Structures are given as C-alpha cells and as structure tokens.
Amino acid sequence: MLILKNLFRRKIRTTLSVLGVAIGIAAIIAFNAVAGGFKDGLNAYASQTGAHLMVLARDVPASEYSRVSAEELRAISTMPGVHQGAGTAFYVARASGLPALFLFGRDPNELPIRRYRNSDLQGRLLETDGEIMLGYVAAEKMKKKLGEDVELFDGRKFRLVGVYTVGIPWENVGAVVTVRVIQEKLRMGDAVQLGMVYLKDPRERDAVKARIERTYPNLIAVPSEEFAGNFENLQYIDWFVWVVSLIAVIVGGLGVLNTMLMTVSERTREIGTLRAVGWSCLRVMGLILSEGVLISVIGGATGLLVGWGGAEILIRWAPRGFLRTTYSPQMFLEAMAIALALGIVGALYPSYRASRLSPIEALKYE
Amino acid sequence: MSEFALRAVEVIKEYEGGSVRALAGVSVDVRRGEHLCIMGPSGSGKSSLLYLLGALDRPTSGEVWINGRNLGQERNLNAVRAKEVGFVFQLHNLLPVLTATENVEIPMMALGIPRVERRRRAREFLERMGLAHRLDSIATKLSGGERQRVSIARALANGPSVILADEPTGDVDSKTGDQIMECIESARASAGATLVVVTHNPALAKGADRCLMMRDGRLHPA
Known about the structure:
Distance between the termini of chain A: 26 Å
Number of strands of chain B: 10
CATH topology of the domain at 34-51 and 74-209 in chain B: Rossmann fold
Largest interface: A-B, 23 and 27 residues
Number of strands of chain A: 10
Distance between the termini of chain B: 29 Å
CATH architecture of the domain at 34-51 and 74-209 in chain B: 3-Layer(aba) Sandwich
Number of domains of chain A: 2
Order of helices and strands of chain A: HHEHEEHEEHEEEHEHEHHHHH
CATH class of the domain at 34-51 and 74-209 in chain B: Alpha Beta
Structural class of chain B: alpha/beta
Strand content of chain B: 25-35%
Number of helices of chain A: 12
Strand order of the largest sheet of chain B: 6-7-8-3-9-10
Structural class of chain A: alpha+beta
Largest sheet of chain B: 6 strands, mixed
Shape of chain B: globular
Largest sheet of chain A: 10 strands, mixed
Radius of gyration of chain B: 17 Å
Oligomer: heterodimer
Radius of gyration of chain A: 29 Å
C-alpha cells in the first residue's frame, strides 16, 4: 500500500528511474538476442551441411584465417570411419544491391553442395568454375535471373545457374562458387579454410575427432553444432555485449540510487513519524528497499519487453537475412536477476540512511 | 504495578556534545490516568522532555520510567513506543499519500496486526472522532482540524497507556483548538490513558488535573 503510493507520488521521477533500469535490461536482452542469434546461425549452418565434424586450424581467431591443406584433407578422408572429407572456403565480395555478398566455395563433386539440391533449388547445382548459385535474397537484391552473368571481383563474370533457398537466413544472402575460385582469389594454393568431415557412423565421432587431432596437432576437429564456440572473435562479441550492457545497467543503478536518496531526503519528516509510532529501523529500511526493488522489477519487466521488441525491430531494419535473434528462458531470468540486484544495490544505501535517521531530528526536519 | 504511568528522575538532556543543555535535572511523576499540562515558552525544553517520556530519545543522564519499566534498561524502544505511547504532534505529521484510514493503520503495522483487523479498528477510531465521512479521504484533502483528529485516532490506534501531545492546537484556530482538546480529553477518559500536553498556550491548561511550568530546562509549579 505505502510502497506503491510513495512511488506514485512522484510519477515523473519514478517513471524516469523505471526507464533507466528498463534501458539497461533492454540492452542486455537485445544485444544477447542478436549475438546469440548470430552464433546459433553459425552453428545451424555447420549442422545443416550434414557434416559431423568441422576441421580447422588450431588457435585461429576466425575461420577466414584457418588453413587446412589438400594433403591433410585427403589423409583425413582415408582415415577409418570417415566417409568423406570435403573442403570449403569463404570470401566476402562486393555486390550491387547488397552491403556484402557471402561467397561459399564448394567442390561440385563433394557432399556439402548436395544440400542445395534438397532445398527449393531453381535451376541446377554449379558444375564449373565459371558458374555461380545465388541465395534467393541475394538474387532478388541483385536483380539477377537464371542464365544472366554475375560480376564479382576483378571484373570476373559468373553464369547464374541456380537460385537456392535454405533454412539459414544469412546463407540466403550469399552465393556459392567452386572452391577453386576462392582459392585463386585468396591465393591459398590448394588449401581450404574448413574441412567438413562426413562419417560412416556418427557414433564414431569422438574417436575420429581424437584421431584427427592426434595426427595433426595443428588442426582441431569440432562437432558441427559447437562450431561457433571455437572462434575468439565471437567471444569478443560476447565481451562487447556484456560491457555495453554493464554500462547501461550501471546508469540504471545510479538512477535508482539517486531517486531513492531524493525520496529519503524529501520524506525525512515522515520517516521520523514512522519511527515515532513504533516502526523499527529495519522496517523503515525494508520500506525504502522495497520501493527501490519495485522500481527495478517494473523497470526489468519493461526492459524485457523493450529489449525483445527492439531486437525484433533491429533485425527487420537490418538488411534481410543478415541478422537473427535467439532467446532463452535463462536470458530473461538472468536479466530479471540483474534488475533485482540493481534495485537492491541502488536502494541499499538510501534505506540504510533512512534507518539511521534520529526520530527527533527527523521530526524537526523542515 | 507502579502507581505512576510516567516518571522522570533527575533527567539531563544535552545536545551537540554538551554545548546545549535542554533539560537541567528534571524530575516529575505522572499518575495513571492523570492529565498533566506542561507550559513554557519556545525553547524551554518542553518538547525535549516529551520526547524522552515518549521513548523517542534517551537522556544524557537520569532515568525515565514508563509503567514501571526503566527505559534505560529497555533494548527495544520501538516496541515501547508502539505499545505504550501515542503521539499527537503540532503539525499532525500525517503521511500525505495515504487516506485517513491508512494513516491510522500505520502504528498497527508496527505490531504486526493483520490488515483486516487494522482496517476495522482504524475505521472505528475515526468514526469515534466524527470522521465517518472522511475515512477514504487522502490526508492532503482534509482540513487542519480533521487532520489533527486523524492524528489523535492514530495516537489511540494501539490502545496506548500514555498519550503525549506536543502543541496539539498550535496549527488551528481557537475554536477548532477547543474541539481538538475535547477530542483528546474524551479519548483519554474513555481509554483510561495518561495524558501529557506540552504547550505555550495557557488556554490548554483549563481541563488539566495539574499544570507545571518549564523554564530554562527545569520544571516549576505553575
């Protein structure tokens, strides 16, 4: 009763404090949802290739710096339990109508390219170095139709032979060329950036992984669904997300602190009255603390909604397919726990001050 | 049981590290059910004595007793205030965001009385004060006299044995002041409580059983 009425007596100030907390919590939700979506997209991409293991160079910050030689890949292909070791390469090209075009290099004779045939493929799979397949979003944005030429880098033209649709949004904003095209562009020789290992029996995954890493200490083999966890630069994204969120949260916490300090100062005489009628220090402390916690809980709940809404608007505002979001109950629970902690920390000192007020001094306060 | 509701024995109260002496050795006994009026000019130490008698503060030296309990040996003065003492302040000190009923409930919260019971009792006290039509009015919407009657109801909420009033009519006109004093006196009589009123207004001494004068931190017969 008293807690709610006290908060409503200064509606604008309470609203601003709630907003301060809400913005911090919204930042946590929105950034984590987008960053999580990016990582999940990467893992889903790796899983949807159908490969059981991804092989890349050890200790590289990102897959573009990885190199797996053709000799290593051939040797992996002949290991017991391995059905095929396929190579793949990536490049980001400029393209009209798009901020960037993700190029995936595939060998027309290897397994990874088959997944495009399984989807809503218009046209056919690529067969030679002069051909290209576009994701349906890329084809729309670049206004390209089957049979037309697509000019990429160095004035080089590729004949559009297929338009694919797959379940990974950002792959639909990409294109597929032969792996040799990217090897030439990046002067990689016969190396690839990533080896995709298909097993005869998925239950042998751990054994094959151990065998690869034992034979080639310079390589690591990771289960496809854990692919994103191996890149340092993705961990930097996590750091960035948490640092930005932390700053937003600190600002929110200072808002609660400021509000509660002002409220204690304004209500000094009332606090004296409460003490005079028998309220204990602890009860007064509980009153002020509860007000701070209520601000942060309302702010937290608002922040969850704003963060969710903001992230969804952000991915719609971004070029189609480039971003996606992932939410988990844990993310919401953590955000609410942070909001709660904010309220407690922000209101702790003001409530302590209120509880230490001398009843007589408080009653005399003008 | 002690025949005195309140006792002060050689009470000295100093502030600011001893540079200000508000009470310079005050002794007074107040019998159960007595109506005592303490008069004196502003700054004479009346309110300081009232706060000590009401367990709001501890003396620098000397003893204060309520109903035979030495407050110097009481660890929890909050409980003493909640159970034994009802305060009526000059500026009524109502919580402005609460209704009349809710204000009267505030002391009962200190004793952990359930909400339904609090509400029932608060309404009963307010009706007795002639405020049946103002039960749900916000404190700021009440007149000065109504506010003071709410504060009297609040002082009576926990059935205290001692009612302490600090300039209870200081913020209202004389006609309203008379009505307020009648309210306090009749509440005291019906509750069988002890009443101590401090004031600089000689008119308030009229109905008192005894009157004392506070001057320079000491009590004298009026």
